[in-house]
Amino acid sequence: MRPQGPRSGGIDDVRGPIMAEGLGTFVAVFLFPDEASESFSKRLPVIGAGPPAVIRAAAAFEGAAAMDVYRLVDASAWPGAAAYLYAETVPRTLADGDGDLVQQISTPDD
Asked: Of 50, 52, 58, 44, whose CA–CA distance to 107 is shortest?
């Protein structure tokens, strides 16, 4: 279940310079299993031959560092777009030393 409360950071903080470094971009559509949160999309850099299986985004939940986790649910429009379903928010940060706000993971077990 998605925690309720004040949050900031994460996908909404992805800015142009991150995308300019990639060779191409795709539209990641972020869906939620309930209607309490509105679905949205963001253009992200293409970093592999296929869509990432998991996207993790830095977030803040009630003032604490957290990470939103989204899992791939539809890649039929790849390489133009892919859809991701919100899985959970976990109380931790992205890998130490990783300054990116978003991580794309090619396999779900990474």
From this structure: 52
